[in-house]
Amino acid sequence: MVPFGELKRNYLACQTDIDIAVARVSKSGWYLFGEEQENLENNFAQYCQTKYGIGVASGTDAVQIALSACRVGKGDDVLTTSNTCVPTIVGIEATGAKCIFVDIDPRTYTIDPDLIESRITPQTRAIVVVHLYGQCADMDPILEIARKNELIVVEDCAQAHGATYKGQKAGSLGDVAAFSFYPSKNLGAFGDAGMVITSDSDIACQAKKMRNYGQDGKYNHIIRGTNSRLDEIQAAVLNAKLRFLDSWNGRRQQVAKRYIEGLKNHSLELPYETEYGKHVWHLFVIRVPNRDEFRSDLVSKGVQTGVHYPSPVHLQPAYTEYEAQKKYLTITGQQAGHLVSLPIFPELTDDEINHVIKSVRLV
């Protein structure tokens, strides 16, 4: 069976580096707010072409803290997409703000810039732009709209580690960005972890306070914050893996190219890669007429697949208050039942790639 993902292979690819890093932390006796975290914050911010990194406990927390550090909160509206993983919405709502959904581009499945202004309300304070599947949204028109309407732009980069837009790294384009280091991400920890990055010193200062109970010094609470700390072991693991990120992304690009070449004459719809950016292929998402039958046939041929996502957020049982927005989300609704993710990760072998291509062509 070709697995959809296999994290053990990723560990084995850099086992020595990780084992040394974890042992170093274990022996240090210092497990929070130490050198490992500081090094990761500096290294990852620099990698993303920004000035400041603020380590937090998860990508969800990163979205919340990024918005809160920009003074977004109760009574505010935040524009985003419904074709995303629920943690984006959880992070927004944790600030007290409400989501206003914008429909997506039918090719990239990211937010459609042409539809943003029609969804701005008097209460709109921010746009959370989800860079989806490893590819950046079209940022220039989004930033222009934001400037015109005095809106904060938060990049949700949970699937875009190393992606670029016109030569700039994902996370360096808006006012602030949120990253997840969930284990299956292009850069993944050994558990939950996240980071807020920005080049704005005020946002960085606010975010640092917010992640640690609003303190600017021990027991001196300046603002109301939360507990969202990136521990030293996760930071050490991520630091050890960071130097491999570009090569891992390069292998993902090789796999994607093989898929595109091998499946280009098939009836399915292949992913669209924009000319303005570098795709890092966190996911390889195709569109098929009958998703359940397609996936079942592939399993019978020894290929696991995923679905990202089975249902948009506004149609999820927990979010019925957003269902009324479906009239604005035509493309989101049309694609929801047809997307399938093929296996793509750096350690996928050439034989496995060939087997996936052969199996898909037989479906």
Features:
363 residues; alpha/beta; Aspartate Aminotransferase, domain 2; seven-stranded mixed sheet; three-stranded antiparallel sheet; globular
Structural class category:
alpha/beta
What is the CATH topology descriptor of the largest domain? Aspartate Aminotransferase, domain 2
State the helicity in percent bands.
25-40%
The percentage of residues in β strands lies in 5-15%
Order of helices and strands: HHHEHEHEEHEEEEEHEEHHEEHHEH
Distance between the termini: 16 Å
Low-confidence residue ranges: none
Compute the number of structural domains: 2
Helix segment count? 12
Fourth CATH level, the homologous superfamily of the largest domain: Type I PLP-dependent aspartate aminotransferase-like (Major domain)
Q: What is the number of strand segments?
A: 14
Under the CATH scheme, which architecture of the largest domain would be assigned?
Answer: 3-Layer(aba) Sandwich
Please tell me what the overall shape is: globular
CATH class of the largest domain: Alpha Beta
Which radius of gyration do the C-alpha atoms yield? Answer: 20 Å
